[in-house]
């Protein structure tokens, strides 16, 4: 039972909160609607101020909702518009904190996975894939995720998946080659094997031949063979990004090195890629396993050293083991070797 006065207080609080969120949404929406390459600097500045004035959770949710509504439509979105929206996320990701990009990325990947499983007719999948590709282009996410998505698409290998592979390779193929040429080579080999073992109806399609030609062009670093490939707009916006990002190490250190599986199971296993992200759920590591792993074999140790460890309050196996190593090693190299073991 909730007494009437408490109920009333809760209702007014909920109304107040709803009103605040509505106001915040209106402000963010206004900024996103005016977004263009020319005013990106001022808009990202205003967004940062909003992040300072409001709770990060509210801002992340509001921004993600508005961007998803703007970019994920049943018709194909213009590439330039897509890039500008992602560039804003990238600037906020580097200047405000990595949870901005992480929240947006998780929402996009989950939506993409959901739509891939359903037989949606529209261009939502392409739009979501473009968002992920540009998040990679603007150093929000590591190539690991892109390879995971490509592997998943290659393993399914239907007409829809072939279309999406082509779309992704056209957007980020040469960047992937620069980042991890070996992984790309393995992916191309796997795709060729799939194409050869696919049924005759699929093999005869010009789409499949075109995809294999595109992959060969990527492997041989031949940009001319890919029709409509133009790295110019991305490069131009990358230069703009460098001027807007304040931290000197804008790039590799803030890239989210997270796999597709981790993102999809974030609710079950927590978000380890966000520093300080709270976790409320089942224990991630089984205690019985950790106890067995902690029994380290260092060799025989004298009772004198054991007594010393007890006096120094080395109260767990792993602490005692490290203490024994430090006390009984001949020199720093010996200690290093033992510690590694």
From TrEMBL:
Species assigned in the record: Spizaetus tyrannus (black hawk-eagle)
Q: List the taxonomic lineage.
A: Eukaryota, Metazoa, Chordata, Craniata, Vertebrata
Q: Which domain of life is it from?
A: Eukaryota
Provide the primary localization: nucleus
Biological processes per GO annotation? ribosomal small subunit biogenesis
Q: What's the name of its gene?
A: Nom1
Question: Which Gene Ontology terms of cellular component type are present?
Answer: nucleolus
- Where does it reside? Nucleus, Nucleolus
Assembly description: May interact with EIF4A1, EIF4A2 and EIF4A3. Interacts with PPP1CA and PPP1CC.
One Pfam family per UniProt: MIF4G
Q: Which residues fall in a coiled-coil region?
A: 181-208
Q: Name one GO molecular function term.
A: RNA binding
Q: Where is the MIF4G domain?
A: 25-222
Keyword match Ligase: no
Among PANTHER family, the record links this protein to: CELL CYCLE CONTROL PROTEIN CWF22-RELATED, NUCLEOLAR MIF4G DOMAIN-CONTAINING PROTEIN 1
- Entry function: Plays a role in targeting PPP1CA to the nucleolus.
Which keywords does the record carry? Coiled coil, Nucleus
The similarity comment for this entry is: Belongs to the CWC22 family.
Q: What is this protein called?
A: Nucleolar MIF4G domain-containing protein 1
């Amino acid at each position: 039972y909730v007494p009437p006065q408490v109920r009333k207080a809760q209702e007014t609080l909920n109304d107040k909160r709803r009103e605040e969120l509505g106001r915040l949404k209106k402000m963010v929406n206004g900024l996103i609607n005016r977004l263009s390459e020319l005013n990106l600097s001022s808009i990202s500045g205003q967004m940062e101020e909003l992040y300072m004035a409001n709770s990060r959770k509210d801002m992340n949710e509001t921004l993600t909702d508005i961007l998803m509504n703007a970019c994920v439509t049943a018709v194909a979105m213009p590439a330039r518009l897509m890039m500008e929206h992602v560039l804003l996320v990238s600037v906020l990701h580097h200047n405000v904190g990595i949870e901005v990009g992480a929240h947006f990325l998780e929402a996009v990947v989950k939506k993409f996975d959901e739509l891939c499983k359903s037989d949606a007719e529209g261009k939502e999948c392409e739009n979501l894939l473009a968002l992920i590709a540009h998040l990679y282009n603007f150093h929000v996410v590591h190539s690991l995720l892109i390879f995971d998505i490509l592997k998943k698409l290659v393993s399914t290998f239907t007409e829809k998946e072939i279309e999406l592979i082509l779309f992704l390779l056209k957007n980020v193929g040469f960047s992937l080659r620069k980042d991890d040429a070996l992984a790309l080579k393995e992916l191309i080999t796997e795709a060729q094997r799939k194409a050869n073992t696919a049924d005759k109806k699929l093999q005869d399609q010009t789409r499949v031949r075109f995809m294999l030609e595109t992959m060969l062009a990527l492997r041989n670093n031949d940009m001319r063979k890919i029709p409509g490939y133009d790295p110019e707009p991305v490069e131009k916006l990358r230069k703009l990004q460098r001027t807007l990002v304040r931290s000197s190490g804008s790039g590799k250190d803030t890239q989210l090195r997270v796999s597709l599986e981790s993102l999809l199971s974030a609710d079950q296993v927590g978000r380890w890629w966000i520093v300080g992200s709270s976790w409320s759920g089942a224990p991630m590591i089984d205690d019985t396993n950790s106890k067995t792993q902690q029994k380290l074999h260092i060799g025989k140790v004298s009772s004198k050293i054991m007594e010393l460890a007890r006096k120094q309050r080395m109260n767990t196996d792993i602490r005692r083991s490290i203490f024994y190593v430090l006390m009984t090693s001949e020199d720093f190299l010996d200690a290093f070797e033992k510690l590694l073991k």
